[in-house]
C-alpha cells in the first residue's frame, strides 16, 4: 500500500493536481498548499490506525492520498485494500481508518481539502512499530573444554531490538555490551549450562530464547573415603567423580579387577559408584582402587577396607595402615628402654 522511494514522494504535488481535476468542478482553485508540517502517528503492527482529518464545511471537496496514489476521492474508494475505510464520526470529519496495520503501510498520507479559494492539505506520517522477535538462535552444542565458542542470536523489530546475553547460573551473570554474537574464548566446565538471549524494544515485552552449551572434560574424583568394617557385616566403599560425559567406573582389589561376584557388587549411577561387600571376611580387607574413565581421560583413587581399631595414615600420595595394638606395642617398647 505504501511505496518507499524519494521519486514517489516527489510525485505528491502532481497527484494532488490530478485529483483536483478529477473532482467535480464548480469551486475555483487559487493555490495548492503541500508544504505543511507533518504530524506523526505511531501504531503497533496489527493494530488499527486512524488518521484524523476535519473540514469546516460539509460542501468542501476532500480526498486521501499516499505515495502510491489516491485512496479516497470524496466518498469514492480508489484503493483495493479491504483494510482501508473512511472513519466519519460527524459530517465535518473525513478521517482514514487502516485496520491490521503492517510495516508496508508506513509512510506519508495526505488529506486534501478543496475550499472556495485554495486547497488545504494535512500530511500525516504513519510510523509502524513491530514487537521484538528472535528469528535465529544457535542450536544446543557440545564442545570440549578449552574450545572457542560463538553463539548467535538475531532478532527483528521496529525500532531495532537491543540484544543482550545472560549465563543462567545462580548469579545470573549478564554479559557486557549489546551484541548478536557472543564469543567465549577457551571455555571452561564452569561456563557450561544455559545461555539466554533477550531481544527488547519499547513496543512490547522482550522475546527470550535459550541455548545450552555442554562442556566435555575428563573425570576428577571429588569424593572417596576408606571405611572400617566388622567381619560378618555389610560394607560399602563409595567413589564420586565429576566428568562430562558421565564416567564409567571400574574397581580393583590390589591389581585384580573386581566383577560383581562372590559377595561383591558394583553399583554405578551417574557420577557415583559404590562397591558393596555383602558379608565382610578377612579376605576382603585391604587396598581398593576406584577408576573413573571417559573419552577425555582417566583418573583413580585408593580406598581401604580395614578392621575396626586400625588407623589410616595419609602421607601425601601414599597411604599406610597401622594397627592400634602395633602402635601401642611400639610405644611400650620405647618406654621400657627409657
Write the layout of secondary structure elements.
Blueprint: H1 6-10, H2 12-22, E1 38-44, E2 49-51, E3 61-66, E4 69-73, E5 76-77, E6 84-87, E7 95-98, E8 107-114, E9 119-137, E10 141-144, E11 149-158, E12 162-167, E13 173-174, E14 181-184, E15 193-200, E16 207-224, E17 227-228, E18 235-244, E19 248-253, E20 256-257, E21 264-269, E22 272-277, E23 286-294, E24 297-306, E25 310-315, E26 318-323, H3 324-337
Parallel strand pairs: 1-9, 10-16, 17-24
Antiparallel strand pairs: 2-7, 3-4, 3-8, 4-5, 6-7, 8-9, 9-11, 11-14, 12-13, 12-15, 15-16, 16-18, 18-22, 19-20, 19-23, 21-22, 23-24, 25-26
Describe the structure.
The chain has 3 domains: 6-129, Immunoglobulins (Immunoglobulin-like); 138-214, Sandwich (Immunoglobulin-like), CATH 2.60.40.10; 225-333, Immunoglobulin-like, CATH 2.60.40. The protein has 3 helices and 26 strands. The chain has helices spanning 6-10, 12-22, 324-337; strands at 38-44, 49-51, 61-66, 69-73, 76-77, 84-87, 95-98, 107-114, 119-137, 141-144, 149-158, 162-167, 173-174, 181-184, 193-200, 207-224, 227-228, 235-244, 248-253, 256-257, 264-269, 272-277, 286-294, 297-306, 310-315, 318-323. Strands 1, 3, 4, 5, 8, 9, 11 and 14 form an 8-stranded mixed sheet that branches. Strands 10, 12, 13, 15, 16, 18, 21 and 22 form an 8-stranded mixed sheet that branches. The protein is rod-shaped, with a radius of gyration of 41 Å.
